Amino acid sequence: MNYCIHRIYAMNRSIFLAVSAGAAYFGYRALVDYTEEESHANTCCVALPSQIDEGYRLNRTGLFLYTREWAPKEEHLYPSLSSSPSSPSSSSSSPEFTPSAPELTCVTMTTPPRKAKGVVFIVHGMAEHCNRYSHVAALFNALGFYVHSLDNQGFGRSQGDRAYARSFNDFIDDYYDFVNETMLKYEENTPMFLVGHSMGGLIGYQVAARQPERWAGVIFSGFCYKLPPHVAPPHLKFVAAGLSSWLPKGSLPVSTLNLDEICSDPSVVQHARDDQWYEKGPVSFRLASELFTTIDNLPNVTPSAKFPVLFMHGKDDVICLPEGSEFLYSSHPHEDREIHIFDKMFHEIFNEFEKDQVMTIMSKWVLARTPK
């Protein structure tokens, strides 16, 4: 009898997850409002009816970082906990917009904590910015989640020298502080998820490892761990390490990302080329050196990464090789781990022609780890 009851429960739960994920995905498709003919052209830049809030937060080193929130349409957007300056216009001619410091005012907050199904944090990759994930945020909004992200320092609308960081830990500290500050808006024990792409995975992995018990689940796409020789040639690693202290903001042209390799969809590649906030210059010696050092040190962080994890990677990714995700999956210290390698997909699996498959797997995985 107990066995039968258990089987019925398991079957009903599977049906619930499948139906919920399907409904959420149809909601997501309605949110981004694209037809089959328009879908590939609008992947990275879509007009969403989700409620959006944007602003800036001051980090530990005095830089203003651009932040963005996507809320489920029916929910009310509460004011931020900290005062922030007006956001720049998306039509600004300069991608190196530097916000002026806001006037500091004392604000008494009486807004009660938000009651939310869950909160998702998205960490973008090298050269890009958080608004390229509006369609991913729309999916989570359709599931009933709030979504938060920021532009890493030196990228997008955030302050900082372009493609430069004094230390890779600055990225990690920025996001760790951002998560803790943001979660003050929500009720205690609200489920938290993180989605990290490429270098954003390298950042998010270490953010989550600092407090692994807080995370209901962490998702990685195209994890930046195993780099092919044409992306990280031995001479570049040697030069970057040698000049990191002497010429930290200098760079070599070979350290420029080849946009043709980010996605198999030419329209996505062209959109990145036309995107004024997408960093197209070379990576600085300091950031390159810090990136290589952080990758080499990641096995030392792994024992602390005791959180549920989903690795997803394109099989034809030549920017960050799928073998890196496979290695991290095999060595992950938490028993709740899953991996998917997608055939005929490049680096940006959320923007590929067959991205529906990726979105569906991610939806089911998140729902399975969210309390009803």
TrEMBL record:
InterPro entries per record: AB_hydrolase_1, AB_hydrolase_fold, Hydrolase_4, MAG_DAG_Lipase
Signal sequence, start to end: none
Residues covered by the Serine aminopeptidase S33 domain: 115-352
Residues covered by region (Disordered): 80-99
Coiled-coil parts of chain: none
Annotated Pfam families: Hydrolase_4
Low complexity composition bias: residue spans: 80-95
Name this protein carries in UniProt: Serine aminopeptidase S33 domain-containing protein
Organism this protein belongs to: Paramoeba aestuarina
